Amino acid sequence: QVQLRESGGGPVQAGGSLRLSCANFGRSFMYRHSVVAWFRWAPGKEREFVVAISRSTGLLRYADSVKDRITISRDNATNTVFLQMNSLEPEDTAIYYCAADEAVSRLTVTMARSYKYWGQGTQVTVSS
What single DSSP character describes residue 88? Predict the structure, then answer.
């Protein structure tokens, strides 16, 4: 089975940077022909879409709240997706999850229910 695992979270001061990783420890999964996304969850709030990417369709979509401060990239050799976050703000504090699916419609790419594979999450805490 596909097994996703996030890492790289931790405490950081406002204005700082952090790089999160999402690795597949399960069966081989071709991200080139799939959609990979990041969501975040904060206490008292619903899961929020962050970014999605698909090599097969050229899809790259960022949430407006983080559009100018994050960059998503891939390392195909290790089957890992990275989320580089800069100029972090206290509002970015949340548990960050990666998600994936073999195929997701462009119309539903921002919806959590569109993805069947999920990691356990990694905590990001931004202090002012």
Answer: -
What are 85-116's pLDDT values in tens digits?
A: 999 999 999 999 999 998 888 889 999 999 99
Select from 67, 50, 64, 57 the least CA-distant residue to 31. Answer: 57
Nearest to 49 by CA among 114, 4, 128: 114
Kindly state the DSSP code that residue 106 receives in the 8-state scheme: T
- How many CA within 13 A on the CB side of residue 22? 28
Location of structure tokens 């800069």: 86
Tokens of 128: 């002012």
Per residue in 52-92, pLDDT (tens digit) is: 988 777 889 999 988 899 999 988 788 899 999 999 999 99
Beta bridge partners of 125: 11
DSSP string covering 11-39, please?
EEETT--EEEEEEE-SS---GGGSEEEEE
